[in-house]
Amino acid sequence: MESWKIQAILAAIFAGLTSVLAKSGMKNLGPDVSLALRTCVVFTIVMLNMLVWTAAKPLAALRSAQPRDLALLALSGVTTSLSWIFYYRAMKTGTVTFVSLVDKGSIFVTLLLSALVLREDFTKQTALGAGLVLAGIVVLNWKA
């Protein structure tokens, strides 16, 4: 199996663990303090990861980056922050299953934008997979 596929599977496993651990850890903390603590840990691990795995000097890489690329990455950081803020606020008072399922609905935004902005192929297989994800979200939220 290609390494990027293994990494995607690992990302999904850790994302699933993240939701349950976060909800469990927020029993006596508000969502904002919880998210701030989590973000500090994320920042530390990401910085260590960069220092260990970046062959070139990180500052040299940043200096050689195009301003447009830096701006897009900064905007990605803003959207990630907003996503996490709303996710944690919803998670504090909602159920993990509902919040996580709705959050996974972001796949539709991703598919649409990847086709429109990145010009990635939107195939029948992709449409079928998206339809199955939507069906799964509906079934899991169905009130019998």
Give average pLDDT, whole number. Answer: 90
Fraction in beta strands: under 5%
Domain module count? 2
Describe the main β-sheet briefly.
none
Low-confidence stretches: none
Counted by DSSP, the helix tally is 7
Helix and strand composition category = mainly alpha
- C-alpha-based Rg, rounded: 18 Å
- Please give the share of residues in helix: over 70%
Question: What's the quaternary structure here?
Answer: single chain
Distance between the terminal alpha carbons, to the nearest Å?
40 Å
Question: Could you spell the SSE succession in H and E letters?
Answer: HHHHHHH
The general outline is: globular
Number of strands: 0
Descriptive report:
With 144 residues, the protein is mostly helical. It folds into two domains: 3-93, no CATH class; 105-144, no CATH class. 82% of the residues lie in helices and 0% in strands. The protein contains seven helices and no strands. The chain has helices at residues 3-25, 31-53, 58-64, 67-93, 96-104, 106-116, 124-141. Helix 2 (31-53) packs antiparallel against helix 4. The N and C termini lie far apart (40 Å).
Helix-strand blueprint:
Elements: H1 3-25, H2 31-53, H3 58-64, H4 67-93, H5 96-104, H6 106-116, H7 124-141
Helix pairs in contact: 2-4
What's a quick, concise take on this entry?
With 144 residues, the protein is an all-alpha fold.
Pick out its properties.
single chain, 144 residues, mainly alpha, 7 helices, globular
